[in-house]
Amino acid sequence: MKIGLGADHLGYPLKESIKRHLIAEGHDVIDYGVNDTTPTDYPDIAVTVARAVAAGEPPQAVLVCGTGIGMAITANKVPGVYAGVAHDAYSAAKARTSNNTQVLALGARVVAPELAATLVGIWLGSEFGGGASARKVGKIQKAEQQLTRKRTKATPR
Ligand code: RB5
Question: Is 122 left (phi over 0), alpha (psi -120 to 50) or beta?
Answer without folding.
Answer: alpha
